[in-house]
Amino acid sequence: MTTGLYIGRFQPVHNGHVLSIKSILGQVDDLAIIVGSALNSYSTENPFTAGERIKMLRDAFVEAEIPLSKVIVLAVPDTLPPNYHSIYVSQVETYCPHFDVVFTHNPLVKTLFQQAGYEVREHKTFDRDRYCGTTIRDRMVKGKGWKDLVPPSVAKYIEELDGVRRLKQLSGSDRPDS
């Protein structure tokens, strides 16, 4: 039985994440998904809490008919001082069940896990220019269409959270002179 590891910030969960996770699940039996930057929230780069992102992922999986029995979603706090990269892998191992292969496009993550002896594979990506958290957050702040870039369940949840208003407040774009 092969277990994969996939790390992301999921700020917010978008269609590219879901498509990549489906593709990864075609290569492994189970997948541990790490919500990174778990302690970061209420900023323009990380507007959603770890708990909110976990809910977004679970809702998106149900909607996409990804069996919840095949995935485990965990939050890993960023408790390391800046540039303490050498102990990042052991921190992930502390929070995560055993995994065999890591899926990433991040060069630093790839290097760290390879040096720790893990197999690292690049996963398939889907329209990265369009499905990008930075782009989606920017569209939310500017009042441009963003809902078609995320699963409908995620758009609904962001609306329930009043997430667009939160992001606009955090960015300062809710001021009358903006």
Structure characterization notes:
- The chain has a domain at 3-121: Rossmann fold (3-Layer(aba) Sandwich).
- The chain has helices at residues 15-25, 50-63, 88-95, 107-115, 133-141, 152-161, 163-171, and strands at residues 3-8, 30-35, 71-75, 101-103, 119-121.
- The termini are far apart.
- The protein is an alpha/beta fold and 178 residues long.
- 33% of the residues are buried.
- A 5-stranded parallel beta sheet has the order 3-2-1-4-5, sandwiched between helices.
- The radius of gyration is 16 Å and the shape is globular.
Please give a quick description of this structure:
The protein has 178 residues and is of the alpha/beta class.
Name some characteristics of this structure.
Rossmann fold, alpha/beta, 39% helix, 5 strands, 13% strand, 178 residues
Give the arrangement of secondary structure elements.
Blueprint: E1 3-8, H1 15-25, E2 30-35, H2 50-63, E3 71-75, H3 88-95, E4 101-103, H4 107-115, E5 119-121, H5 133-141, H6 152-161, H7 163-171
Parallel strand pairs: 1-2, 1-4, 2-3, 4-5
Helix pairs in contact: 2-6
Strand content: 5-15%
Please name the CATH architecture of the domain at 3-121.
3-Layer(aba) Sandwich
Query: What is the number of strand segments?
Result: 5
CATH topology of the domain at 3-121: Rossmann fold
Low-confidence stretches: none
Any idea what the radius of gyration is?
16 Å
| Number of distinct helices | 7
CATH classification, class level of the domain at 3-121: Alpha Beta
- Sheet with the most strands, sense and barrel status: 5 strands, parallel
State the order of secondary-structure elements, H for helix, E for strand.
EHEHEHEHEHHH
Q: What distance separates the N and C termini? A: 54 Å
* Helix share, percent: 25-40%
Mean pLDDT value: 92
What is the 3D shape? globular
> Which structural class is indicated by helix and strand composition?
alpha/beta
By CATH, the superfamily of the domain at 3-121 comes out as HUPs
The largest sheet has its strands arranged as 3-2-1-4-5
